[in-house]
Amino acid sequence: MDVVIPYAPRPAFLPFHNRTERWAVLVVHRRGGKTVAVINDLIKRALQCPLESPRYGYVAPTYSQAKDVAWLYLCKYAAPIPGITISQSELSVTLPNGARIRLYGADNYERLRGIYLDGCVIDESADMAPQAWSEILRPALADRQGWCVWIGTPKGRDAFWRLWRDAQLDASVYSLLLPASVSGLLPEAELISAQRAMISIQGEARGKAVYLQEFECSFDAPTPGCIYAAAVTLARSQQRITEHVLLYEHSPVYTSFDIGAPANTICWIWQTVGDRISLLECLRGGDDCATPSAWAARLRDKSYRYGCHILPHDGEVSWAVLLREAGLQSVICLPRPNSEWDNINDGITAFNRCWFNSVGCAYGVESLEAYRAKEESDGQTIKNVPVHDWASHASTAFGYVHQAIRRGLTADRSAMPNKVMSGLRPPPIRRLGKSNTGRTKQEDWGAW
Q1: Strand residue runs (E) in 2-146
Q2: Contact, 353 vs 277, CB < 8 A?
Q3: Burial code of 403-437, b = ≥16 C-beta within 10 A, e = fewer?
Q4: How many CB atoms lie within 10 A of CB 57?
């Protein structure tokens, strides 16, 4: 049977449709046609798949986004195919060969565990929790050697940027960068008008940045609303995010928690040495670490010399007592902050003192880069409100690190005179490298 899909590919997407690579990254300007292209690519490959019961997915940051962005396109381009079945309740289309294409949201990615996929499209991956790909979608492609396409527009040097950067160095990944000034898909007068509107509403600096990001696909344009991104970029340039963060064994180690659902419970492990704050690890909860007793056992297994464990203000009722009963000492709950911005400002103020173990803190650093605020209005005033998403949990716990220091809950020696510091004999240290297991003691005074 010959099936004609009512779709005429734009010239810029022809190489994408003819690709042989298993992976692809498309960075395309707004209204550039990337969603239409990937939906039709899904349909064609699903029709041609020789495997039994093929399964394909389109994944957006939220289920409602998937429906709003892609559902009408999927129905429109699949409708001429004889014998299809459309399920509005599942947002899926089943083709005559048994292949099924379904829309998903990453806001509840745990529900996707156990599915298999022959191919998928991930839209705006930087707005998703990283584990949606690493723990759910990538394993779903494994046994049938499925493929994946990432699409989106830039939002700074985040997870999507790293995908694009790595694609430039990997011949097995197809990549496309298509800014509006190159594609010619939108009239120049329309682009000028859009830029003027952005500048008029958001101011010249921010308006130009948004235009460069949305229409010129610039990863270097300042991302509106990002809270810690500039500080993380500076830390990288100063090599304060490194595999060679040192653990001083005779100095106490502290933990700071943000408590929520198992996968949203975050714990930073850190230490203060002089005026330096060393972030050693950023741990996430999950099915195997969902209770205070499980967390206590996990922390005891680390063999750190703990000073105290910092919890948010509401942790006394739910967690503090249980952590103490499980064997952790010196569990302290912080007072309730006046606002979320108090906690954030503590983090911003102390950021230039922070050094991060790039391996142990990878998830935490990625969260800090993605953490952002958005403007909200009540009709009279406009205020910036921190966004509660996957990145907010580690970022909140990061702020508690600095609240604890500011409140004098740690042995922070930053205020000690240098001449006193110089008279101290440095304690033994351990190097924290690529693995947090099998570490050996090393006498190394040079870093003191």
Answers
A1: 23-28, 55-60, 85-87, 92-94, 100-105, 119-123
A2: yes
A3: bbbeeebbebeeeeeeeeeeeeebeebeebbeeee
A4: 25
Residue 106: DSSP 8-state: G
Q: Which residue has the higher pLDDT, 444 or 197?
A: 197
Confidence of residue 400 (pLDDT cuts 50, 70, 90): very high
Query: Tokens 């892609």 sit at which residue?
Result: 70
d(CA 93, CA 7): 17
Contact by Cβ (8 Å): 93, 74: yes
Domains and CATH numbers, the chain: 11-183 (3.40.50.300), 229-442 (3.30.420.280)
Q: Are 172 and 19 in contact (CB under 8 A)?
A: no
The number of residues in the chain equals 448
Mean pLDDT of 328-352: 92
Q: For residue 307, give both structure tokens.
A: 């000073």
Q: CB–CB of 93/160 below 8 Å?
A: no
* pLDDT number for residue 288: 87
Helix (H, G, I), strand (E, B) or coil at 388: coil
Instruction: For 255, list phi and psi in degrees, rounded to 5.
Output: -130, 150
Which residues touch 307 (CB under 8 Å, ≥6 apart)? Answer: 252, 253, 254, 330, 410, 411
Per-residue model confidence (pLDDT) at position 421: 36
Question: Could you tell me what percent of the chain has a pLDDT over 70?
Answer: 91
CA torsion through residues 144, 90, 137, 173, sign: positive
- Can you give the pTM of this predicted structure? 0.68
